[in-house]
Amino acid sequence: MLVGCGVSESGSASAAAPQAKAGAIADTIDGGLQGKKVLVAYYSWSGNTKAVAEQIQRETGADIFFIQPQTPYPGDYRECVDIAKKEMNENARPAVANTVDNMDQYDVVFVGYPIWWGKAPMFVYTFLESYNFQGKTVVPFCTTGGTPISGSMADAQKSAAGAQLVRGSDSSDPAAVSKWLKDIHAVQ
Ligand SMILES: Cc1cc2nc3c(=O)[nH]c(=O)nc-3n(C[C@H](O)[C@H](O)[C@H](O)COP(=O)(O)O)c2cc1C
């Protein structure tokens, strides 16, 4: 199994300014998670991202939601890679089969995905573009064979229009994920 490469610094937020200005990626969740309603929404093809999503759910007490593509991806790696490449090249927006029940209730949404061709699977952008994230905090995380999360952060920010993004994690290592959750003030 391929594993991630640690937590990467993403975006342009300065370490000295945790309260990011509009458009910038924040270093921390402003005020932490206390008193906030939290969702972990994720997709996972081979289980790595699912494990991280479930760890985040356990550590934060969040609700969890599996983002289900309308057309499931083939179990065969080569076939999946070919479809994912075509969708990425076409900047496609494949349909999502399910919807979050009352997204309005959530203040903070963790969004998790495997890196596919340097980005999130394209239907994850469909997911992000289906909701109004104005006033919400979005925290991306991914697992990867080595490509860092940074390449997908700008796209996530564009798709989750109006959200405050917080710097993501691209690690599959539970200890690194725990440290990242502390660093971004998701847990104390
Ligand atoms: C279709 C496809 C495309 C991938 N593209 C990349 C890539 O561009 N860079 C990379 O480092 N890993 C890539 N990988 C590896 C996955 O990002 C990595 O194995 C990830 O942990 C899988 O997460 P999952 O088990 O939640 O599906 C790709 C895997 C698949 C199936």
UniProtKB/TrEMBL annotation:
Occurrences of domain Flavodoxin-like (ranges): 37-169
InterPro entries: Flavodoxin/NO_synth (IPR008254), Flavoprotein-like_sf (IPR029039)
GO MF annotations, alphabetized: FMN binding; oxidoreductase activity, acting on NAD(P)H
Origin superkingdom: Bacteria
Name used for this protein in its record: Flavodoxin-like domain-containing protein
